Amino acid sequence: MFNFFKKKKQKEIIIICKTNEVFINDVPLNFPTTIEQLITIFGEPSRRIDSSDQYIIWDNFGISCSLKGYNEILSISAYQSNNVSEYVSKKPFTGKLFLEEEEITFTEFSKIGLSKVAILRLGSESENRFGFSIGVNNDYK
Rounded CA gap, 80 and 106, in Å? Predict the structure, then answer.
C-alpha cells in the first residue's frame, strides 16, 4: 500500500567550487546567474521578500540570494547556523561545500578567491562563521 502522506526525502546539496566554475549537485553554475537557473537546481523558492532588492530564499536548504538589477544574481549565501533575520533561511544549510575535492568544514576562513568566483565567509572575523557566500570575485581582473 502506498503512503501518500509520507514526507519526501530532501535532497542533499553538494557545492563543488573549482578555479573557474561552481557545480551544485553536478549542475554547472556561472555568476552572475539567474533565478531560473537556481530554480532548476533548488526548485521553487519557499519565500520572496521585496524591499530595496528582491530576496529569494529556500528555507529547507539554508540558501538565499538577492536579485540585483534585472534578474541578476551575483552570489548565493548558505547559512550554517540559525539566524533570526527575515532575509535568512529558517533552517541551516546541511549540505557540503568542497574546494576541488577537499571538503571545507566549519574551520575559519575569510575569503577564498579562485578566479572569477570567490567563497566568502559570512560573519565578522571576531565572530564564529555563520555561513558562506559563493559568487562573483570582485577582485578578479
Answer: 9
Give the DSSP H/E element, type plus range, for residue 67.
strand 63-67
d(CA 8, CA 123): 33
pTM of the full structure: 0.83
Instruction: Give residue 119's identity as a one-letter amino acid code.
Output: I
Contact 79, 88 (CB under 8 A): yes
Supply 99's cell numbers. 574546494
Provide, rounded to the nearest whole percent, the portion of the chain with pLDDT above 90. Answer: 35
Q: Encode pLDDT of 93-108 as tens digits.
A: 989 999 888 888 766 6
Domain boundaries, the chain: 14-136
Per-residue DSSP letter, 5: T
